[in-house]
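#onboarding

Welcome to the new folks! Below is a worked example of what a typical request in this channel looks like: someone posts a single protein sequence, and someone else replies with the predicted structure as tokens. Don't worry about understanding the tokens yet, we'll cover that in week two.

Example request:
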Amino acid sequence: MQDKLPTQLGGLAANLARIASISKNPDNWEVVDSLLEESKYFIEWMISNATLNELILLAEIQRQLAFWHSLWPQIHTNEIECETIRQYSQKWSKDLLKMAQFI
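Example response:
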């Protein structure tokens, strides 16, 4: 919470990249579940320092993470759903890294 916003955005981007990567293996479903939950909290902690444009993206990500997290026990074996999660997680990770000016 004490990190500057770019560092926080980078941490969230790393979590999203992990979700995209490890969700390919169904044996990692509990770790993905934890990362989904943790990422929601990361967003809560950084919103007070975010600009309006950042808030818009963070709200979109948080809403979708909450939805996936609530359904994860049922959808973690559905390859189509998991591929959707991977694609969005990967895209958002890149978007956040750009926003934080890391790339």
